[in-house]
Amino acid sequence: MASRFDIFESFSSSVFRMEATRTATACSVLPAPGPEAVLKEREARSVSACLPTPLATGGSRNVPPRTRGREARSVSACLPTPLVTGGSRSRSRSYRVPPRTRGREARSVSACLPTPLATGGSRSRSRSYRVAFTLVELLVVIAIIGMLVGLLLPAVQQARAAARRITCTNRMKQLGLACHNYANSNDNCMPPSVLKKVVDSNPEGCNTFGAFYALLPYIEQDALYQQIETAQDTYKYKASSYCSSTNGATLMDTVIEVYLCPEWPYDKTGGKPVSDAYRHGALTTYQGVGGVYYESGEKDDNGESLKNVNYDQADHGTLPRNGLFQWNKAVPFSSCLDGLSNTFLMGEFKQRDSNPSSWCYEHPGNVRPWILGSTFDKCKGTYAYKVIRKNYGMYNQEVDRSNGVPFNHLPLGSFHTGGGNFVRGDGSTSFVSELIAYRVYANLCTRDGKESRIDLDDISE
Predict the structure, then answer these.
(1) Is the separation of the CB atoms in 121 and 44 below 8 Å?
(2) What is the CA radius of gyration of the chain?
(3) Hey, which of 115, 184, 257, 281 would disulfide with 252, CB 3.0 to 4.6 Å?
(4) For 195-246, what is each residue's pLDDT tens digit?
(5) Is 42 helix (H, G, I), strand (E, B) or coil?
(6) This model's pTM is above 0.70
(7) Which residues make Cβ contacts (< 8 Å) with residue 40, sequence separation at least 6?
(8) Where does 130-257 have alpha helices with state H?
(9) Phi, then psi, of 290 in degrees rounded to 5
């Protein structure tokens, strides 16, 4: 058996080894803590410094129950009452804290704690929530949008109107080129306003097709032209009979965009029954310029009296022979003594009576289908061109046929703001103001008045 001395020596060696191990561990070099660890340690120390010692050191488990109760009461004494009793959710009927009071108490508690603890810890993310727009904000946004629409809408409308005017200019340019192409194939002559055909016992040219029919092959519509020509072996160029037939009525409804101004706001066809053929079918809003009919006592720029020397008498208005379009005659370009660039060839036409009781008030007013050249009777009403007249022939002038204005003398006009487009004899186009002086306007509409050269830049918009 080991003696007491041996046991004591063994115990002393064990204690010595334990002490040596502990000393080596304490003297060993440990890695330096990171910034987050240092921050957490400082926060823990600041919190534990405010708490009783057992709670701060975690030794509350070794403290007697009475001591722990006293420490808990001392901690709760430092906190606001609602936090001690469970806040507004406490079932105690003796104490109900208003919402504002709870908010102030919560802010006072969070102000005493370190920042990470007050904001939910260093790992929490700050979040801000917005429920919805207020009524005032909504009204302000709606008002701003309304103001912007009010400012932009006129600009958009003007841009669209300008685009339609450019499109109208291009279409009139095509008509001017078509007239020149027709002249190249027909002895350098303009297309006649009506065909040189005699139908029944009417004067030559009545109840026949017109200039827009003759221009079809030169605006890439040769197929339509051939359909009409093929049928004339049967109908002998009698427009009323052909348009009343099944094939003719179908062809009359064929809209040709080149013959229509894009500003035309109504239906592109007359909308009338086939029996009312002179107002039934696809329309044209362009008309040739047939010169000027001088009023009694009218004088030129030099003060000399102007007289109607050469003209055709017609029940729908006398037709002078001083324009590029004439009744039943193909005018040669060589007869344009004023110069092609100083003479109007075609313009726009939209006239309708302003009196609702007039039969010319309803659509299409006095606008006629492109296929027709004249009225079906012997009255020589022309559907292919119009004559300028001083008393009621100014551009865009409001007149009514019910007041005795002849059909052939209805004024040219357009739906464009401030004026309208014209194509000149040389094929160029110009936008002419509706405020143009009558004497200048009349000089531009005649081909042999020998007026001085007119610069259209002075009368254009």
Answers:
(1) no
(2) 50
(3) 281
(4) 878 777 777 878 889 999 999 999 999 999 999 888 888 888 888 888 888 8
(5) helix
(6) no
(7) 122
(8) 135-185, 211-214, 222-235, 239-244, 246-252
(9) -100, 25
